[in-house]
Amino acid sequence: MIKNLNSMEGQVDLRIVEHLDMQQLPESLQQMISLASTPEEQDIILMATLAAASACVPNLYFRYGPTGKKYYANLQCFILAAAASGKGIANQALEMVRVIDEQYPMLIAGDSTLAAFYKALEEQNGCGYMHESEGSVITDIWKAGAANYNTALRKAAEHEPISRNRVKGASEIKNPRLSMLLTGTFGQYRALVPSVENGYFSRLLTVVIPSTNGFDKRYVSSKGAQSAIPLQVGRALLSTYETLLNGEEREWSLTDAQKERLGNHLETEYATLIGLLGENFHSAVVRMAVQIERMAMILTAMRGMESKVESQKSKANNGDKNIAEMQNVLLCSDADYETAEVIGNKMLLHMAAAYRMIDGDKQDVVPEIKPLDQRKVLFEQLKGTFERKELIKEAKAQGISERTAERWNDKWLEHGQVIKLEHGRYRKVG
Questions:
Q1: N or C: which end of the chain has fewer CB within 10 A?
Q2: Would you list the DSSP string of 208-235?
Q3: Would you put residue 79 in left (φ > 0), alpha (ψ -120 to 50) or beta?
Q4: Within a 13 Å sphere around the CA of 271, how many CA atoms are in the beta-carbon half?
């Protein structure tokens, strides 16, 4: 995946939908994507729909890690884009959720003080969906308490208890399950994620939409009246929501083969991305495993729980030992896992772009996305076996200082991309 980062004119290929097999997507997700008129809008509506739908999957969880910690579907996502970039289409996902909110309140205003935010979560049993398409609204309201909001959102992303102790009394939200979709410019994003070391960076899915200049305008077909699609999808989600809400908590799981594939895949991505971006990107890669599972579980739910339950009963009755042994556990289909993995791959590239932007100068709009890193260019220019003097010579030819080149070589050694043969002599691995 990472070795094919660059597309035309040296730009990082950040597009998501065009790399998906549309026939493998749930029909409701295909319908939402059909609202888009450009590749950029397709990616925006895809991630907005997944984030919004994640609020509509109650009582479904998976277990992760050696402790078997429960994770729910809730995604928190920030669409980072310049003005007039098409991000307004994300509001179609909000219309989808409004159908459910009419009967089961779940919307939390982005224009909320921290106290009002806590109160809304408490009243909704720790569950909710925040959708804000005007980044300036959240920036203004969060200026005074950005750090506190940051902590609350970070804990909610991990379903960790959120406690408060004030003069009027103490309170605790034991199991917060907050889904969120925000859109805004880089300056507004940075108000929420001030540094790459901030713990919220790796928990917030960030979609970077570059300038539309240079993109070909490709239009997709639309199914029926566009204004009706979010309502139709919302009604289908309402049925799924009620099915899950009225039952006991149910476990969802990847199959053993899918778990092994996910582990092997992220192990490879980890070595490459950490070698290119440094240790601060560690948590983003590690936590992507959880995000991929969340997205796969959302796709399962969007197909409709009733048909999914019947399908598993049929398989169990036909002698599928794995399902029979797991009994009430829903298993992920290969199609949904493959879709989630592709999206997760692209999310790592989007977050790498955001990472480099945070680590650089402040900007009010999204800058042009440059090739991933000079380190990659330098690494590729080196021979399979090279000496220190050759490294320094090539680095200087690219305008890279000797000290920086040596530091990068140390990272390559640390992450197994290079091995030391003898003093001052190295060999690239792979």
A1: C
A2: EE--STT----PPP--S-GGGHHHHHHH
A3: beta
A4: 16
Among residues 117, 134, 111, 108, the alpha carbon closest in space to that of 188 is found at: 134
Structure tokens at 148: 């506190």
Q: What b/e string do you get for 139-154 counting C-beta neighbours within 10 Å, with b at 16 or more?
A: bebbeeebeebbebbb
For the chain, residues with pLDDT lower than 50 are 1-10, 147, 167, 213-226, 306-307, 309-326, 361-372
**How far is the C-alpha of 128 from the C-alpha of 118, rounded, in Å?**
11
Residue 427 vs residues 156, 380, 382, 415, 423: alpha-carbon distances, Å: 45, 12, 10, 13, 12
Angstrom distance (rounded) from CA 189 to CA 401 = 32
Q: Do residues 355 and 281 lie in contact, with contact meaning Cβ atoms separated by under 8 Å?
A: yes
C-alpha separations of 380 from 195, 219, 266, 267, 429 in Å: 29, 37, 22, 21, 12
Residue with tokens 């000496």: 387
CB 330 within 8 A of CB 11: no
pLDDT in tens, 273-326: 777 777 778 888 889 999 999 999 999 999 986 445 444 444 444 444 444 344
Residue 330's H or E segment, with its range, is strand 330-331
Residue 332 carries which DSSP code? P
The three state secondary structure string of 263-285 is: HHHHHHHHHHHHHHHCHHHHHHH
Q: Helix, strand or coil for residue 96? A: helix
Strand-pairing partners, residue 182, are: 78, 132
| Cβ atoms 338, 345 nearer than 8 A | no
Q: What is the chain's Cα-based Rg?
A: 23
Contact 363, 186 (CB under 8 A): yes
Q: Which residues contact 135 (CB under 8 A, 6 or more apart)?
A: 182, 183, 184, 185, 188, 189
Class in CATH terms, 2-358: alpha beta
Give the pair of three-digit tokens for residue 47. 């991630």
